[in-house]
Amino acid sequence: MKNNFTVLINGQEKTVSAEIIDKKIWFKLDEQTYSYDLIDLVEGSRKSKAATKSPDKILAPMPGKVTKVFVSEKQIVNKGDALLVMEAMKMEYTLKADISASVEKLFAKVGDQVTLGYLLIQLKENK
Amino acid sequence: MKRINRVAIANRGEVAVRIIRACEELGIETVLLHSDVDVQSRAYRLATKKICIGPAPTSQSYLNIEANINAALAAGADAVHPGFGFLSENADFAEQCEKNGLIFIGPSSGSIRTLGDKVSFKNLAKQAGLPLIPGYEGEDQSTIKLLAEVEKIGLPVIVKAAAGGGGRGMKLIQNIADAKDLIESAQREALSAFGSSKVFLEKYLGKAKHIEFQVFGDCTGKVVHLFDRECSVQRRHQKIIEEATSPSLTDELRKKMGEVACSIATLGKYKNAGTVEFLLQDNQFYLLEVNTRLQVEHPVTEEVLGVDLVKMQILTAQDNFIFNTQDIRIPKGHSIECRVYAENSYQGGMPSTGKLGSVHWPEGPRRRYEFGFESGDTITSHYDPMIAKVIVWDETRPRAIDKMIRTLKDSTVFGVHTNIPYLIEILNHEEFRSGKMTTRFIETYFAEGIKSPTSDDQVKKWAIDINKKLKTLGNGGSTNTHSGTATMVSPWSSYWRGV
Fold this sequence. Notes:
Order of helices and strands of chain A: EEEEHEEEEEEEE
Low-confidence stretches of chain A: none
Structural class of chain B: alpha+beta
Number of strands of chain A: 12
Radius of gyration of chain A: 20 Å
CATH topology of the largest domain in chain B: D-amino Acid Aminotransferase, Chain A, domain 1
Low-confidence stretches of chain B: 476-499
Number of helices of chain A: 1
Helix content of chain A: under 10%
Distance between the termini of chain A: 52 Å
Number of strands of chain B: 23
Helix content of chain B: 25-40%
Largest interface: A-B, 48 and 58 residues
CATH superfamily of the largest domain in chain B: ATP-grasp fold, B domain
Strand content of chain B: 15-25%
Number of helices of chain B: 17
CATH architecture of the largest domain in chain B: 2-Layer Sandwich
CATH superfamily of the largest domain in chain A: RNA polymerase II/Efflux pump adaptor protein, barrel-sandwich hybrid domain
Number of domains of chain A: 2
Largest sheet of chain B: 8 strands, antiparallel
Oligomer: heterodimer
Radius of gyration of chain B: 23 Å
Number of domains of chain B: 3
Mean pLDDT of chain A: 87
Strand order of the largest sheet of chain B: 14-13-10-11-12-15-22-20
Largest sheet of chain A: 4 strands, antiparallel
CATH class of the largest domain in chain B: Alpha Beta
Shape of chain B: globular
């Protein structure tokens, strides 16, 4: 359930509504809605997502189904090459390589239903 | 006259709720034909009866003709309303309804075949000398043939699902190197969304406006148009904002296009609600397609004309609706609809799924909300991301735009991200406000999406403060997701003195 209260923001009293849903805090402030992972709110913690995000890891950017895989293991890919296609909410999204690399490991196949952040492909950057 | 006592709804979400409301007002019972995951939805809670027709994937539930027919019969329904999307434009479904003694609330299966199939529609329009866009609509669906036709028409070319509508399975080919991939991708999306991979090709008009006419055939077969809507604000051919009437039409153009719309519908022996879509460029208009069903954006027409299209549909299906020559329908004021999608405005429209927390659509004069999900319901990745429609009416277009912005700012959705910030930026855009936007509006000005006005560090600081405050309230902090009632005060103790 939502709570409405006031907080001091930059010295000003502001009315805020806020709610915790699935380990995230959601709040509305000055007509804008924001959310933040509670785990990332611990003082001094680094953003957990940022820590795991790197161009050699192709993660599912959304929950959905893998509808096409263009690469196989050990294949060389160039920056900008399409790697696989995912479908969610009836829309297709093509995931591309941000680096020139070889495909080290493939963790998904056509038809797989994957969750947000699932590691789909591990690349190995060509140096 | 036939009497409908119980309508089976072969759909979900907000349109299912819309149909339930119309049925309730007419004293008709409803049966919701739903997939197993959709028990957490507003339509499920509102329908008189509900029958599960299969698991979440659409091919096994909402697109399964046999399952829908069997469930409708088992529930004792005498009619079926298909809503929009799913089986709404499937002639086989309409035919199966007819064969099984179920009244299909929409045009006949024959009309759907003639007008809904884009190829047959084009042949009909061609024969009647109505204006069409150059393209290919042949039976040969091999990649080689399609590629040859793309070259013949000349780029840019659009690939569309033959059985489709609503932008699903549509792709734009801008250079020949991408043509093969895009055609195949369109075929896959068409198969998944409509159960048929058939596509056709069409010349892409680069600065056209999307204008459509609401047509309606009464039970005698008389077709009348209920004026126009403009839906030029589209992203990847999916409409985002619609309005009635179009700010772009002169009286002369409106009259001509309305006549063409009625002609094609009459040729297709159209009964019930339908929409004739056009592209308008340099004062030339081209017939695009006929959507043989109720349209997502039907509320804006209802708002400017003061009609109820869903009730008109049901009455027509009962052979109980005839246009009266004395009825004069003149649009009044201006109405806008925004589609609220579950997606992250600040991440290029990435779909957002999850359990809805608090959802609030604040009331106000001539604000209308059509929504299918409430607090506690889950938005899944199986279906369309549209979670609600916000519709406003005001005396003039500028006022309607301002009202829409205010309404969106007042609205709250927690639990999934929405495109509300994106909608507000579009509504505030100079070109939108001028009414001159074309179907390329989004790709021209919003190709990169929008950026959050607030830095991540700032949001984090606020989140820390607000979370602390939540904890001191003792009912919703991070240690306790089961929030409570501390801020709720009995209305009796606090207000009785004022009575």
